[in-house]
Amino acid sequence: MHVVVITKHGGPDVLRVEDRADPSTGAGEVRIGVAAAGVNFADMMARMGLYPDAPKPPCVVGYEVAGTVLELGSGVQGLEHGQRVVAGTQFDGYAEQVVVPAGDVMALPDHLTFEQGAALPVNYATAWAGLIGYGNLQPGERVLLHAAAGGVGIAATQIAKHREAEVYGTASPSKHEAIRAQGVDHPIDYRSAGWERELPPFDLIMDAIGGPSFRTSYDLLRPGGRLVAFGASSLVSGQRRNVLTAARTVLRMPRFNLIRQMSQSKAVIGLNMLSLWKDRETLEPWITPLRGLMDERVLEPVVAGAFPFDRAGEAHTMLQERRNVGKVVLTP
Asked: How far apart are CA 226 and CA 284, in angstroms?
């Protein structure tokens, strides 16, 4: 089978298509023929050498796929050969075939394409965990979503609107119409100096920017507000690792004072889906709640671009340059 390999740390040119043996299926596992694989910011950071959880190169990354069931291991129930499915993968998703535990697989509704399905396991599980599972979003609350035009941003918008929240979202002005169409009530131009000054206090903020953005987000919380920090995209500058930029960003991260937090009644929640996934040994607690929302057509993933494996570098570049509105995927 063909896979996309990070041959070494570096720019998009280090991504190569190589041949690997087909994976074997064990008890309780499912082998899937991949039709689309999701591209996430973590994949790009892994390529640059900025993601400590990633395997060392040469390696195959990728957290989520959509495709058809090729083989069922012994003991697997509720799935059928040839069924359309989506699945979470702890790396190895950039491949024509993957083998995953059955608990990390769910059926893909007929009204969604494979490309849309590849946006579900990570982006929508992250959005649900941040907003509902840990953020405890309530109807009528006010939410700020950073990078509202990205894969998680659009997922979070759809879930927040379903929860009857008032949604503010940051994006460049060229993307404001697109995020309004997804349900953002108040688009914000984050490139405008002092963009945060006239905003109301928020009940919940989703922030994957990191660096000084965490402090800005924390200051925008009202008493009882929750900041969900789930990424640090500001660590990335250019197509290759820049240690100086990364170090500066880390140094500008706020140091939260628990006594002050207690006095202000504000919460900071760190969210890393891979850590949760490893601890629970399954994505099931976060993908199971999505099933009903998919059937109700509440969740409608937006695909910004689909690239064949041999153009994986272009997919990474689109994401790194923030040109996407929605999910970027690879297709074998």
From this structure: 24
